[in-house]
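Notes for week 9. Today we move from apo structures to complexes. The key idea is that a small molecule is not decoration. When we ask for a structure prediction with LVWHZ4SM present, the ligand SMILES becomes part of the input, just like the chain. The input block below holds both the sequence and the ligand string. Read it once before you look at the output, and try to guess where the molecule might sit.
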Amino acid sequence: MASPATRKSLLKEKVMDLMTSTATLPLLFSCLGIFGLFRLLQWMRTKAYLRNAVVVITGATSGLGKECARAFHAAGAKLVLCGRNVEALEELTRELMASHASQGQTHKPYTVIFDLADTGATVAAAAEILQCFGYVDILINNAGISYRGTVVDTTVDVDKRVMETNYFGPIALTKALLPSMIKRRQGHIVAISSIQGKISIPFRSAYAASKHATQAFFDCLRAEMEQDEIQVTVISPGYIHTNLSVNAITADGSRYGAIDKNTAQGRSPAEVAQDVLAAVGKKKKDVILADLLPSLAIYVRTLAPELFFSIMASRARKERKAKNS
Ligand SMILES: NC(=O)C1=CN([C@@H]2O[C@H](COP(=O)(O)OP(=O)(O)OC[C@H]3O[C@@H](n4cnc5c(N)ncnc54)[C@H](OP(=O)(O)O)[C@@H]3O)[C@@H](O)[C@H]2O)C=CC1
Ligand SMILES: CCCCCCCCCCCCCCCC(=O)OCC(=O)COP(=O)(O)O
């Protein structure tokens, strides 16, 4: 019997033979060529899909929404920027018009001002949005607020406020824009959810519930819309370095007002916006944009729920202890 060293060198020889044989090399180059060609075609299709597309972005005044506005504008999209803060949207419009980030033609964005927590205003805003370019190709439901608090201390009004902004607002806007998309047999709805739309962590009940509801709603919509050729993409990011925690509301409805360590250490919103652009361009259905641990946590929640629940309970104990000490 050959020694391990001899076996290793025999194997190496065989691999080298195979690699350099007249049949393998052309096959290898053909595979690489086909892969390269496939990537090139995919890149060209993505570019064509986004160029001149009418893209509506909610929550464009800050954080991820603002970065999505920059990314989609540079990709040549026709933007409708939505938010509550007129000055912030006007400033962003000026910045985009002055920017030279795109190599191709860019378009002057429209702005539509409304509060997503007000369903009537949201439905009226949809009509205004449709008037901007006459139709909508891509709606990015990005606006949202977070929350921090214990279930027992939190008033139902706070739960409702979070649900209004993160769930009822986006679904009202989606429902108001869908008929025109269906008529054109063309459209793409994007929901910016969260890892917390897949798993629930302690002291985030209202936020996690709103994001789970978002995931469920848009999963149903995707199935229903297939026959009308409307695309639905749900994107679930991990922590992003934005003002989300600063703007979060607490158990009594007051502003949290601080940037959390996890948020501060989160990904840059510009980077995440590039991932959103790529996911939309490739018409992905469900995308997780997070590190290994949160991604693993989703599998643990499904495959070993008891383990996940005990990890969360211990997390709750630790956080409570840290707060009380
Ligand atoms: N940051 C993170 O760690 C993560 C964020 N996300 C999600 O990303 C999305 C964007 O959040 P992010 O950029 O981080 O946070 P920001 O707080 O920076 O941005 C939130 C945006 O939502 C808008 N908004 C909030 N409430 C309303 C409302 N009632 N009506 C209209 N617009 C409103 C804000 O507008 P205004 O300026 O008027 O307040 C702002 O433009 C959210 O859906 C969030 O859940 C998901 C995972 C992680
Ligand atoms: C044996 C292996 C066990 C592995 C399981 C590990 C479980 C680790 C838990 C990880 C929890 C990750 C939570 C991530 C939360 C997140 O990314 O949220 C994104 C947000 O939406 C942030 O909003 P917030 O307001 O909470 O800042």
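The CA atoms of residues 54 and 133 lie 7 Å apart.
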